[in-house]
Amino acid sequence: MISSMTGFGRGGAQTPTKRVKVEIKSLNSKQLDLSLRVPSCFREMEVAMRNPIAARLERGKVELTATVESVVAEASSTINIDLLCAYKSQFEDMGRRLGLAEPADWYQLLLRMPDAMKTEVATLAQEEADAFVKACEEAMDALVEFRQREGKKLYAFFVEKIDRIRQLLCEVTQYEGERIPKIRERLEEQLSRLTSIEYDRGRLEQELIFYIEKLDVTEEKVRLAAHLNYFMETLGPADGKAGEGQGKKLGFIAQEIGREINTLGSKSNHAGMQQIVVKMKDELEQIKEQVLNVL
Length: 295
Hints:
- By secondary structure, the protein is α+β, with helices and mostly antiparallel strands.
- The chain folds into 3 domains: about 5-75 and about 125-145, Ribosomal Protein S5, domain 2 (2-Layer Sandwich); about 75-120, no CATH class; about 150-290.
- The chain is built from 8 helices and 6 strands; from the N terminus they run βββαββααβααααα.
- It has helices at about 45-55, 80-100, 105-110, 125-190, 200-215, 220-235, 245-270, 270-290, and strands at about 5-15, 20-25, 30-35, 60-70, 75-80, 115-120.
- Strands 1-2-4-3 form a 4-stranded mixed beta sheet. A two-stranded antiparallel sheet has the order 5-6.
- The chain starts with 6 loop residues before the first strand and ends with a helix.
């Protein structure tokens, strides 16, 4: 069973003092394009987390966002009293020298000075690191499950479209019996109008046979049917385990299907067959569009 590259997952974990939340969203992309937006306290874990995330998610434009909240009240900043005392002393000395009155609000003035608050640099505890990893794994599990659900929808879509192309391919047969005689009749009718030109009847027959053989679409029909079967084989059974890299492979097979349909159209030389080819192309374009979402 195939999986989609599109998905969303959310995970969370908690320590006695912190609550960690992780969200991962994924869109289609040719390769893995991983972007992590995490709080500064988890920045040191970015490099270590990239490899397991890449191994698990394989492909897609993946964006991971992490947030951390304090469960208990924590004072991460304190007033730098010693520095503020030095500031106040300098202001008082300046006032005496310049004959200025004291400020009406010392608090507002001093707290606006540089480094008035001392911010403690938080260190990442092991339990917080474990919580971050757990939240990431939970979010990835949810994302993979989402991708698998979307993969089932894509699988049903592809089965429907491939079956439709097969039906259209079967409809080509009804025109093959009348197509060649009509082409031959039209050529002979045009030649009959050339009364002033003499030609070798035997040579004409040889050229007609050669021309008609070039219009034969048997090989194209066989190859197209084989490509359709290969596409379904690559999809695998509906209840099978998801493989790796089917998206790229399915894209290549779809290109081969398109080549055979195009050749079939160029050789058709029949309005009914050309209409069938147009319908095939329409079904194939829908397949190509959705193959871009396959992991």
